[in-house]
Amino acid sequence: MSRLLALFPLNLVVFPGEKLNLHIFEPRYRQLVRDCIESDITFGIPPYLNDGVSVLGTEMKLLSVEKSYDSGELDIKTKALGVFRIRDFHRQAPGKLYAAGQIEDIRDDPQADAVLKERITGYVRQLYDALGLRKLFLDLAPDYRIYDVAHHLGFTPEQEYQLLEATSEQERQEIVVEHLEHILPIVLETERLKDRARLNGHFKNLTPPNF
User: Fold this and answer.
1) Residue 49: CB partners within 8 Å, gap ≥ 6?
2) Any idea where the Lon N-terminal domain is (predicted)?
């Protein structure tokens, strides 16, 4: 069943469960924030990719207004809920400055594959260690989802959108495994070369071979 949802296109992909801080300065989106406060509505962020508004987006709930400026600008905190598909895009919602769309919610299968998850966890540990991000790995909850790590895996916005298109956790796991198996050797070799480069120019304590 479709419903009308206010839209706020942005040049980024937002995943369900993600918390996003935004600085609001355009009058149309200041109006949107006011409507969220006064009418308790949600809004959607469809990624603006390749010079166009994407068909899929993520529904957002306003959590709080952290700061209001004299200029009317706002700092807000939001949380992503679920993924939707735009059936009909309107450049302006009825009587509003901001866009809207007739949307349908997308059902998602959250069941993960245990074997894939174990492989991904090992790959993520290697990647974070190589990049000096071990704290990110240590902070990872045992029941983490792909959405929880997706922004830290070296995906392009287009690849992140591919994750948004997936309708099951297992499908997202398969995408991530393929991606990590491709980039991890490159990252590890790059870091190895950087370590070697750092050694150049330093005094080395080497044991000569016995002839």
Assistant:
1) 11, 157, 158, 161
2) 2-184
For residues 33 and 20, the answer to whether their CB atoms sit within 8 Å is no
How confident is the model over 24-62, as pLDDT tens digits?
A: 999 999 999 999 999 999 999 999 999 999 999 999 999
CATH architecture of 3-105: Roll (2.30)
The SS3 of residue 110 is coil
Q: Dihedral sign, CA of 33, 34, 35, 39?
A: positive
In terms of Cα–Cα distance, which of 198, 143, 145, 195 is closest to 170?
Answer: 145
- In the prediction, which pLDDT does 190 show? 80
Domain boundaries defined on the chain: 3-105, 114-199
- Which backbone phi and psi does 17 adopt, to 5 degrees? 90, -15
